[in-house]
Request: fold
Amino acid sequence: MTRSFSIPISRRDLFKLAGLTAAGVMLSGSSEGLPEAEAAEKISGETIKYAGKKIPVLYDVDVCVCGGGPSGTAAAISAARNGAKVVLLERGVALGGMAVLGCVYPFMETHAPNSDTPYVAEIKQRLREKGIEPYDGVTQQVWHNPEILALIYDEMCEETGVNILYETVLVDALISGKKITTAIIQTIAGLAAVRAKTFIDSTGDAYLARHTGVEYERGYEKTGNNQPMSFRFEMGGIDLDRLYQYVVVELGETWCKSDLPYLEIAEAMHRKQRYKLEELMARGVETGELTQEEAEYMQAYHIIGKDGVMSCNFPEIPVKFKSTDPVDYSRAVTYGRKMLHNMAGYLIRHLPGFENAYISREAVMLGARESWRIRGKYYLVEDDYHNQSRFEDAVCRTAWFIDAHGEKVSEKLPKGGYYEIPYRALISDKVSNLIVSGRCISASFILQASMRIQPTCMSIGEAAGIAAAYGLKNNIAANQIDWAKIPARQRSYVSEG
Ligand SMILES: Cc1cc2nc3c(=O)[nH]c(=O)nc-3n(C[C@H](O)[C@H](O)[C@H](O)COP(=O)(O)OP(=O)(O)OC[C@H]3O[C@@H](n4cnc5c(N)ncnc54)[C@H](O)[C@@H]3O)c2cc1C
Reply:
């Protein structure tokens, strides 16, 4: 029997779920309910009944990937390359998730030797081919360019035949026994459905997993807090040479090791590390131009290919705003935007190099570092980091330090050290045809603070896509796949033990 796991959904709730603030178009439809997705009818003509309405089935595919962030995009492309017919659902109008919609930049380095899986290496190569040299010659972090990255992702999806549904929000799922059969989606034309054999939840928020009965957690078990969110943005019109002269030469800051144009500035009052710009920010508190909250954290990176533009990793919004509470989350947007403008104004007035700077772009996705995480077949914990755990079914390796803002920041692992992420952290006993990828896999709050960086999320997504296609070809349920039994040449990562 097919059943929906959502509570019967009202129009008002649906709008909330879909994140639609300006629902004018929808409200102008019949008062009986949402209009049908007309464009979709042209594709298949097939309909199903959902919440008392007839809705079109847009696709019937092998793999439906929900969320087009670093991890979901990797999953979709990898599944397609391995022969699966794929649909990728994304609520924004660009792939890349935090890296593009959230203005998060650059990809942090894993600090693990040889951690690049083929997909990650390919992204770097494609950036280079488009004139973005991702390496600064000193660190291993990847200085990408959000617009170029979005273009690369579109191109890769086109090449591999991934069908992207943009401005499409996963709102619900139909399940039969232990299997998801159908994703219910909010498209630009209205409610619709996508049928698939295997689903990959790459929403970052474990949205599909939570709504289909998979156990989950949120926040830090000790405090109940989620990691703080940030409202990231970009500033243009910066005189980079003047900024370098002031911060590196005059103040003598040694934090940024690379040379122009690869320039990073930073300060973080809650860290042990003391930064030269801390004094400037503290002065803002003394003069009443900045609040203590605003002065606490500031970090910005020059964006390669965007002259005089920096990606701003601030403001950090106080933890009282939870990333898992829709009301808090929305208030955090307003609160964060105010902080953002105040901090930008302060830098323009006081930081040499910023005299003619301006806010050139705001993120269209709030920066939630952590929200919900599944409890899967394997639960990664802090000890896995310190013990440098290895797994037969490992899908990638990483060693980014534990970076739980405001809660815990660990020492880095010794040089050459790393831990692995097992395939079992991507699956659960509850749903047989679901793989979870990205920052919401089965990991404790503290461990997640290490594995959440973009290259690691990409490698996890890559493995999820490969596993999904392999399972379908070999008639093995996604949650029964033994990654170690997939022929080594088909795997993106093989553990050295
Ligand atoms: C403020 C901040 C700073 C960070 N700094 C760095 C850094 O410097 N370097 C680094 O490597 N990492 C950094 N990270 C971490 C990293 O960016 C994320 O952990 C990573 O992007 C997670 O990838 P993901 O694919 O799991 O999820 P996301 O990047 O969150 O992507 C999820 C995607 O799913 C879509 N989606 C969600 N729900 C739905 C739905 N219901 N229907 C349809 N689509 C949906 C979203 O629109 C999004 O595109 C930072 C994170 C934050 C928040």
